[in-house]
Each structure stands twice: as structure tokens, then as C-alpha cells.
Design a protein that fits this description.
By secondary structure, the protein is an alpha/beta fold. It has three domains: 97 residues, no CATH class; 236 residues, Type I PLP-dependent aspartate aminotransferase-like (Major domain) (Aspartate Aminotransferase, domain 2, 3-Layer(aba) Sandwich); 102 residues, Alpha-Beta Complex (Aspartate Aminotransferase, domain 1), CATH 3.90.1150.10. The N terminus is likely disordered. It binds glutamine.
Length: 476
């Protein structure tokens, strides 16, 4: 069963989005800055009044060119769709700090999955439901009247449960009242951390490929991004490169382990070197560990647990991946009080508080017996085996993934020029959606050979996708 959220599937939504189509949008980076694959095209727009007739020359890559009638706010309308070209609207407006960004790749690809009836191994959301006991807890909380604003930094019960879980995982004892901040998903925790702790002009180090919201929220905070690229096959941290980039001017380094999109897990050796560089240069660590319970090939290590690191580390996590409830958007940040203060200041004015009944249910979830976590891992290992074996059998070069529910492959055996072209071919000719990875790099060229598949789907879906690929993909 494909997940068909009404958000993506209604025609009304598509038309609604078209109303915000730019009239003159040369500044917008569509589908990332895929210079190597982009075609310059000219699209006439017909608007109302004397000033709104315009021509927008823009670059956009072939996947959106040939697949576009699913509309996103920064996508051009397909040339054969006359009716939509006649909608007159003022040009899109966006603050400079966000103008280079686009509709997220996950949204784009999920929309294309629905439009083309393709199996969605792109966006990382389970197509199966979260556990009954957690859903029951949410229903009960609603019935019990836990329906007004929550305390800004989290309902006491959830702060306690997060602290208890963190202690079990890392051995660190934290104060649930002063060191845990509950947010609307990890994405908000990321934003609150950036906005609460980073000043305009501060240097922040990212490892590419990186999750898209890191760059966007750093841009909102006005940070200067420095990038270190992790390269296949092992995506190891090039420690010498890191040493040459980190300095007293570095405010923070952002790590993500297990790592989206590669599945790489930071080794103890890598974390030790990063930690000593951070201590030496007085650098903060922001660590996104939302896939910590999906660690298959090695044990997850939290940066905060390394000697001398807790005081300079903000640890981010969430409920979504561990409990297959990505739509609940319950996340949290754990940090010493002096760092939690900044995170909380930003959080207070971003969302103030997050959904009250879901927080109560999240507390119940986090108290799940260890058997729940074991079972989750076992289920995911079976899914992973289906996808990995299938991708190999279909002819991909499959890179090792130690954690997360993602697999990175090299698509070049099939002869397509880059990741976007390959994903286009895969959707249209094979009926499977993957994520082109070039969007996760500052330099998109670095990701042009790689695409990401997810295995957070039921086994039947994974097998069908694999069958389609084995049957229809042909090596060039
Ligand atoms: N984390 C999910 C992924 O990597 C996407 C979440 C989103 O769409 N923002 O696929």
C-alpha cells in the first residue's frame, strides 16, 4: 500500500500551489543548483494588468521538466497546461535568507510518486502504523482533557521520560526540568538550536551530504557554512580536512549519526577526534541522533557521552523514527542549562509549546520495554536485507549502511548522466521513487552518482519495488 496523504494527492492543493508561481524567478534555485543537468528554458507567463506579463528564464533539471504537472511553489508549469498558465498572481516573495531554497526534495518526490503511481522508496516515512499502545495513550490523553497549551519546554511527564531514556542510552543523568526541551519534531529542535545559539556570521561546520533543513536553518540564523564532504564507499570523516577547517572562528559543528542519507555511523575514533578538536577550539556540537534506535552494524555512540563533551553538546532526537509516527512531530533537545537557555528562548517564540496530548503519549512510548526496541530492529533488519539484496541483484553498486533506514547506491551502471536523470528514469520507466542526493551537497556535483532508497516500508512494498527494478532496469 502506498501512503497517499491528502496533502499530496488533491488536485485542489496543486492548483492552490500554482497560485504562488513566480512571474520572474531567476533567483530561485529549483531542485537544488543542479548546474550540470540544467537546461535553460524560457517560460512565458500571462498575468493581469499592464505590468504582469513577463518572461521568466530559469534553469531547471530534466526530472521536473518532463515530470512537471505536479506543482510546487517554485516549479514551472508544464508547457502543455494552458489553463494553469493563465492564472494571474503577483510574483513570489521570499526573504533573501531563504531565496535559494526550494520545495523540499522529499515533498517533490512524494508528489511525483503519487502522480506516476510509483512505489515510494524516497521520502523516509513508514507506510505502516505506529504501535497500538502509543496510539491508545494519545486517545486517552485527549479524553482525559489534556488539551490545552502544554508547558513551553514540555509536559513534566515527557521531560522525565526523555531524561530517563537518555540515561539508559548514555549513562548521563540530566535534569528533566532544566536540560530537556520538547519541540515540534526534531526539525524544530534543529531550528531552535541554530536560532538560539548561532549568531549571524558565525562559522558552522556541516558534513555533506547533509539533511536539507540544516542548511536552511543555518541560513535563517545567518551562519557561514563550512563543509566537509564524506565520500563513498565508507563515508568516513576526512579528519585532516576537518582539522584544516576548524578554528577558533568555528562556533559549532553539526553531526548526524546514524547519518541521513548515507547510513554511516560515526565511529568512536572519529568522534574522539572531533571531540578533541571541539574542546581545543571551544566549539559547540549539535548532534542529530533521530536514527539512534536504528543502528544495525555497530552500537550508536552519543557525542554527549564522550569525556568533556556534555557541556558543549546539544543532543537532538525525536519520536518519529523509533515509533513509526513521523506525523506526530514530537522532538527534543538535551543540553546543559547554559545551552538549553538559548534553545528554549528560540523555541518559546517559534512554537511556544507542542501538542499536549501527543506529549503524554510520547512519554508512554519512551517507557516501552526494551523488547520493543529489539523487535523494531529485527523488523528493520529483515526489510533492509530485502532492499540491499534486491538492489544488488538489480545491478546497483550498494554502499554499506550501518544505521538509519536508508541505503545509498551508485546508479552509474545504468548509464544515466546524473542522479536526477536516473531518478526521472526510475519513476517513469520503472515505477520506483528514490531520492537524488545532489541536493544534500553544497556542490551538487559531489552527489551526482548517488541516489538514496529507504526501506521503511512493509515487506510486500519493498519486494514489489525490487521486482520492478530487477525486471526493468537495464545496464548500459
Ligand atoms: N527525514 C525524512 C527523509 O529524510 C524526510 C522528512 C521531510 O520530508 N521533511 O526522508
Amino acid at each position: 500500500m502506498l501512503h497517499a496523504s491528502p496533502y499530496y494527492s488533491t488536485r485542489t492543493q496543486s492548483l492552490e500551489m500554482l497560485r504562488f508561481r513566480p512571474l520572474n524567478s531567476t533567483f530561485i534555485r529549483p531542485f537544488s543548483s543542479l548546474h550540470y543537468s540544467s537546461l535553460p528554458i524560457t517560460i512565458p507567463f500571462v498575468g493581469s494588468g499592464s505590468t504582469s506579463r513577463g518572461t521568466a528564464t530559469r534553469f531547471y533539471p530534466s526530472v521536473m521538466a518532463s515530470l512537471s504537472t505536479v506543482s510546487t511553489q517554485n516549479e514551472v508549469v508544464s508547457s502543455h497546461d494552458e489553463s494553469t498558465q493563465k492564472i494571474s498572481q503577483p510574483p513570489l516573495q521570499v526573504a533573501k535568507r531563504l531565496e535559494k531554497f526550494k520545495t523540499t526534495i522529499f515533498t517533490q518526490m512524494s508528489m511525483l510518486a503519487i502522480k506516476h503511481g510509483a512505489i515510494n522508496l524516497g521520502q523516509g516515512f513508514p507506510n505502516f502504523d505506529g504501535p497500538e499502545f502509543v496510539k491508545e495513550a494519545a486517545i486517552q490523553a485527549i479524553k482525559d482533557g489534556k488539551n490545552q497549551y502544554a508547558r513551553g519546554y514540555g509536559v513534566p511527564d515527557l521531560n522525565l521520560a526523555v531524561a530517563a531514556r537518555f540515561e539508559k542510552d548514555t549513562g548521563l543523568v540530566v535534569d528533566p526540568e532544566k536540560e530537556v526541551t520538547v519541540t515540534s519534531g526534531c526539525t524544530e529542535a534543529i531550528a531552535a538550536t541554530m536560532l538560539g545559539l548561532i549568531n549571524p556570521g558565525d562559522e558552522v561546520i556541516l558534513f555533506a551530504p547533509f539533511y536539507d533543513s540544516y542548511e536552511a536553518t543555518l541560513s535563517m540564523a545567518g551562519a557561514k557554512i563550512k563543509c566537509v564532504t564524506l565520500r563513498p564507499p565508507k563515508f568516513s570523516v576526512p579528519l585532516d580536512e576537518l582539522k584544516s577547517i576548524i578554528s577558533k572562528n568555528t562556533r559549532a559543528i553539526l553531526i548526524n549519526t546514524p547519518h541521513n542519507p548515507t547510513g554511516k555511523m560515526f565511529t568512536r575514533e572519529e568522534l574522539n577526534v572531533i571531540a578533541s578538536l571541539c574542546i581545543e577550539n571551544d566549539v559547540l556540537v549539535i548532534t542529530d541522533e533521530v536514527y539512534d534506535k536504528l543502528a544495525f552494524e555497530m552500537d550508536h555512540i552519543s557525542m554527549a557521552s564522550l569525556p568533556g563533551m556534555y557541556e558543549r553538546t546539544v543532543t537532538l532526537n525525536s519520536l518519529g523514527k523509533t515509533f513509526s509516527l513521523t506525523g506526530w512531530k514530537i522532538g527534543w533537545a538535551i543540553a546543559a542549562p547554559h545551552l538549553s537557555w538559548g534553545v528554549r528562548q528560540a523555541h518559546s517564540f517559534l512554537t511556544f509549546a507542542t501538542s499536549t496530548p501527543m506529549q503524554y503519549a510520547a512519554a508512554t512510548a519512551l517507557r516501552a520495554p526494551e523488547s520493543y526496541y529489539k523487535e523494531l530492529k529485527k523488523d528493520y533488519m529483515a526489510k533492509k536485507a530485502i532492499l540491499v539484496e534486491g538492489l544488488k541483484a538489480a545491478g546497483f553498486v550498494v554502499y554499506p549502511s550501518s544505521g538509519t533506514y536508508f541505503i545509498i547506491v551508485d546508479h552509474t551502471p545504468f548509464g544515466l548522466e546524473n542522479d536526477v536523470a536516473f531518478c526521472e528514469y526510475l519513476i517513469k520507466e520503472v515505477g520506483v521513487v528514490a531520492i537524488p542526493t545532489s541536493v544534500f551537497y553544497l556542490n551538487p556535483e559531489d552527489g551526482k552518482n548517488l541516489v538514496r532508497f529507504t526501506f521503511c516500508k512493509d515487506e510486500g512494498t519493498l519486494k514489489s519495488a525490487v521486482d520492478r527494478m530487477k525486471e526493468k532496469l537495464t545496464k548500459k
